[in-house]
Write a structure and sequence with these properties.
432 residues, alpha+beta, 14-stranded antiparallel beta barrel, 16 strands, 19% helix
Length: 432
């Protein structure tokens, strides 16, 4: 009920004290996510506790729901400054001073802050422009029952001249188990402007090697740039990937996505948009194609609470060459991911499941089951337990250890494309 989301009065806050008052507001957050006064007061108390990241999140939402909250704008200015984004804090404070509705007692306070922010800052150079940097380095060791993603076959049956001819598969084309080692490095940059525009940039480099099967190694580089706008309730994403496997498989992808986003209840955000993608296989141009589709997503990411991601994609992959086996392909994928805090110190549990369905528009090959149309049903599941090692570093960084397992099962109307693999792993990651 709306009455239950009326924030405590100043007298009630004084009686409770800052710690109890903060706990009261946080407990009521799930039912008061759409109440700007509640969010603004919570942000104000978090600024007082120097929890600037959490404060900025709640104050952004409060201002989105009700932009003309002078006190919330001031608190948001202080939160940005506390995060090291003094350029944005300076711009927001200047806009407040230019507002004739600003209460006169607050003007000297903001003027002193402006003078302080105008001085040379001792913060690292990476924050001078307002960009916030973070990253991670990780090393993962595990086992895999099918390192090469080989089909579950001992022999392959071809149709030649109306006759079926079974052919034994070489050991090189059968499933081979063994251990593997994966390394990952990631760099992220983010910046938010007072007008509600935010940019996120990310670069990720992955490498895999296996002493058991040399051809199982690969290197992959992923680049991403995303612009989100709170006032326009929109997003635009540019992405690129390059993949090179030790078995000579190579491809690159270029992707563009955009659409609408809006906040929902209980700290969730929904998205709906369109996606375009180009995939290029330089060693086998027949495999290249262009993807066009629609996407829906729901993300619930309240800090220190269970988090959810639900996503769906539907589209068509068009063959760049009309001679591509199977021709164009319809694709549907569904994904659900869940993360929740665990009772042990700094622990998390993660579950990530995906189901992908696809169907070619025409028969794949007259040599396989008399030109039968290929369909694929791929299911993947990852379970992982995480724990931070030692105290948290700046911005929540530090060492993290993980134990997990992955499982993949792919069914197909053509036996050549059915496969299965699974395996446990352990990972050590350092975040900063």
């Amino acid at each position: 009920p709306q009455a239950a989301c009326q924030p405590p009065t100043p007298e009630a806050l004084q009686r409770l004290g800052p710690t109890a008052a903060l706990q009261l507001l946080q407990d009521g957050l799930p039912r008061c996510q759409r109440e700007p006064a509640w969010l603004a007061l919570l942000g104000h108390l978090l600024v007082g506790q120097q929890q600037y990241a959490a404060a900025a999140d709640h104050l952004e939402r409060a201002l989105m729901l009700e932009p003309d909250q002078t006190e919330a704008r001031i608190d948001y200015t202080l939160a940005l400054a506390g995060l090291g984004d003094t350029a944005s804090a300076h711009a927001l404070a200047a806009s407040l001073l230019a507002d004739p509705a600003l209460p006169e007692p607050l003007r000297p306070v903001l003027q002193r802050q402006l003078a302080l922010w105008a001085q040379p800052a001792p913060a690292p150079a990476r924050n001078a422009s307002g960009w916030q940097a973070s990253g991670s380095l990780g090393l993962r060791a595990g086992l895999d029952t099918n390192l090469l993603g080989a089909p579950r076959l001992d022999s392959l049956t071809l149709t030649v001249g109306g006759q079926s001819q079974p052919l034994p598969l070489s050991d090189d084309y059968r499933a081979r188990a063994g251990n593997d080692l994966r390394a990952e490095a990631q760099l992220q940059l983010a910046r938010a402007w007072p007008d509600g525009v935010r940019w996120d940039l990310a670069a990720t480099l992955r490498e895999r090697s296996s002493p058991a099967v040399a051809q199982a190694g690969y290197q992959q580089l992923d680049l991403l740039a995303e612009r989100t706008s709170t006032p326009a309730a929109s997003y635009l994403t540019l992405a690129a990937s390059a993949y090179h496997a030790d078995n000579a498989s190579r491809y690159t992808t270029l992707a563009l996505a955009g659409g609408l986003q809006r906040p929902l209840a209980a700290g969730c955000q929904g998205r709906a948009g369109l996606e375009l993608q180009q995939r290029l296989y330089p060693a086998d141009t027949l495999l290249s194609g262009y993807y066009q589709g629609a996407a829906l997503a729901l993300a619930c990411e309240a800090p220190a609470q269970p988090q959810w991601l639900l996503a769906a994609r539907l589209g068509r992959d068009r063959a760049a060459d009309p001679l591509r086996a199977g021709g164009d392909q319809w694709q549907l994928s569904l994904r659900a991911a869940h993360q929740r805090p665990m009772p042990w110190p700094a622990g998390l549990a993660l579950a990530d499941a995906e189901l992908a369905l696809s169907r070619d528009e025409r028969g794949y090959s007259p040599l396989l089951d008399n030109g039968r149309v290929r369909t694929l049903q791929r299911a993947a599941l990852r379970l992982e337990l995480q724990r931070r090692l030692g105290p948290a570093g700046p911005a929540g960084g530090g060492w993290q250890a993980s134990l997990g397992a992955e499982w993949v099962d792919q069914q197909s109307s053509l036996a050549l494309f059915g496969l299965q693999s699974w395996g446990p792993y352990a990972r050590l990651r350092w975040r900063w």
